[in-house]
Design brief:
The chain has 338 residues and is mostly helical. The protein has helices spanning 2-28, 34-39, 45-55, 61-73, 87-122, 126-141, 144-158, 183-190, 193-230, 233-240, 245-270, 272-275, 277-283, 288-297, 301-329, and strands at 79-80, 85-86. The protein has a two-stranded antiparallel sheet. Helix 1 (2-28) packs antiparallel against helix 15, helix 9 packs across helix 11 (245-270) and helix 11 (245-270) runs antiparallel to helix 15 (301-329).
């Protein structure tokens, strides 16, 4: 077990290091001059040259990367020239909003996938299974950005069921005292029930749209896992001992299938930084996704680099925790297991 932890920690560190190199080089090969984009078209050549020098863009890539890694090791993510703030402060402000949205999206995706797949498999009828396959295909094949625009037009603007693109709270609503940065959690801690209800209502629609893709994948995965488990020998043995169908399903089949969802669901959560980018932009959600979209347009390298590195770290950490949990829960996944 200890050797497994060290091996996977080594892989995790190598992955983060590789991601930092990839993001650094990729962003500097993007066409366009970030100094000119930040200074504006009216800036003189001398002003642009001075800005390039202050940003370190005149140095070669090795020197730039060395300076970048040195700053990271000191906990400095750089400076956002487009906003005038440090990148660290921007991440601290925006990250809780994305985490709050992402956590609800994962919960919606997992609960909906488990319920839909369970009904499709347990019912033994064709139409629930066919409906699940059609729904998952539509969810997987529809762009979240397009669904977000359509949902905003119909459910918010025309029907008025959900709030429009006004962020995390309605105008005039009192913000809760900042503890975690997640409005629903902070409102509960402060006992502000009206703020909690309002923040939750703003979360539901964007979180549901982001959850559609993960739902499609997880529901198909869980459905196939359940159908495969039903053909296992231990299920036949349990039924031969006189156990009824529902106890066999709830005690043996469903938990066995849930074990396969853990690594997939954890990796989907790590992908939410990328998946929420355009959805956050549509709903005016002040999270990491909308910040990244603005930074890409303005060629704000420091912000984009920090977000890409943060996504890589989140992906690695969640994957590592998931692997360790799976290793502890299922001995067959351990390195060297026979």
């Amino acid at each position: 077990m200890i050797s497994t932890i060290f091996k996977r920690l080594g892989i995790a560190l190598a992955t983060v290091f590789g991601a930092s190199i990839f993001a650094f080089i990729l962003l500097r090969k993007v066409p366009g001059d970030p100094a000119r984009a930040i200074a504006g078209d009216a800036a003189t050549d001398d002003a642009i040259a001075a800005l390039r020098k202050s940003m370190g863009l005149d140095d070669n890539l090795f020197v730039q990367y060395g300076n970048y890694m040195g700053s990271l090791l000191r906990g400095d993510f750089g400076f956002s020239y487009s906003t005038g703030n440090s990148v660290g402060s921007l991440l601290a402000q925006r990250l809780p909003a994305t985490i709050e949205l992402g956590l609800l999206s994962v919960v919606i995706a997992i609960v909906a996938a488990v319920l839909a797949a369970s009904i499709a498999v347990y019912s033994r009828r064709r139409w629930p299974d066919r409906f699940l396959r059609i729904a998952s295909s539509l969810a997987m094949g529809s762009p979240p950005f397009w669904i977000a625009l359509l949902a905003l037009l119909v459910l918010s603007i025309q029907l008025g069921i959900f709030p429009g693109p006004e962020g995390r709270l309605s105008p005039g609503m009192l913000r809760p005292t900042n503890v975690t940065g997640m409005f629903t959690v902070d409102a509960l801690l402060a006992g502000q029930w009206g703020t909690f209800a309002n923040a939750s209502w703003h979360l539901i629609l964007p979180a549901t749209i982001i959850a559609l893709g993960p739902f499609a994948f997880l529901s198909r995965l869980y459905r196939n896992q359940l159908r495969g488990t039903l053909r296992e020998t231990f299920v036949t043995v349990a039924q031969s001992h006189g156990l009824r169908r529902f106890p066999v399903y709830s005690r043996h089949v469903a938990p066995h299938g849930l074990l396969a969802l853990l690594p997939a669901a954890s990796l989907l959560f790590a992908d939410l930084l990328a998946g929420s980018l355009l959805v956050e932009k549509v709903f005016g959600w002040p999270g990491i996704g909308s910040m990244t979209a603005d930074a890409i347009i303005q060629k704000d390298f420091a912000v984009v680099q920090a977000v890409l590195l943060l996504a890589a770290i989140l992906y690695v950490v969640v994957s590592l925790v998931s692997d360790l949990v799976m290793t502890a829960a299922d001995p067959r996944t351990r390195v060297g297991a026979r």
